Protein: ATP-sensitive inward rectifier potassium channel 11
Amino acid sequence: MGRPLPGGRWSHAVPQGHHPRGVCADAAGRGPTEPRYRARERRARFVSKNGNCNVAHKNIREQGRFLQDVFTTLVDLKWPYTLLIFTMSFLCSWLLFAMVWWLIAFAHGDLAPGEGASVPCVTSIHSFSSAFLFSIEVQVTIGFGGRMVTEECPLAILILIVQNIVGLMINAIMLGCIFMKTAQAHRRAETLIFSKHAVIAVRHGRLCFMLRVGDLRKSMIISATIHMQVVRKTTSPEGEVVPLHQWTSPWRTVWAAITSSWWLPSSSTTSLTPRARSTTGTL
Structure:
């Protein structure tokens, strides 16, 4: 039986052990281990939190264009590949010129002790190992003093000049590449942090997407600008579906240097419900 409530309403008591028909049907259709509420499926981020685009380039034609700008290609490579190329460039140059020095000594007859000419092209070269050590001494300018080029062979003098020039070019390119990788601009962005949460609220009569930006370093960034790219699925007036439509939203600073706001245009606010407009989201 029911009992009266204030205002002329009645409350119907449910006997113990009995449940409404709708509740029983819902419980019967749901398994014992099935959750009542399912979490929303999280999509993969198009842009990561550090600013990298989560896009894989496949089936790229004319990949030979990357070799037209070798320096930029080396800078864009990952660190393991860059260090591998750095090491192999020196090793290959040492081995190449070691072979050249060994051939010069072999052609001049310096490898056979007691049978060669009285004055060798390069002193103290008797095998490929000694030629390899001499190649390293020439290119790195160690100068131990045990091996040296004589004036007996003009070709040896020419190879000495060529190896020094090639060694300087390899040093300039590879050391410059390492310096550029360590001094890239995105490294500076590691000390620029954003607030963990963002808020959508009304400012000056318009909905505003607000977050905080802070710089951890004491050195200030002069004339810093902030741009926000919005990527969303849109449909053109002709009916074409654009899955990744990008547009730049105007950015405005509301408070001192660490707080900024992004003004939402009317086209974006129409899709927000009142509940969504007042919630706080995690970046």
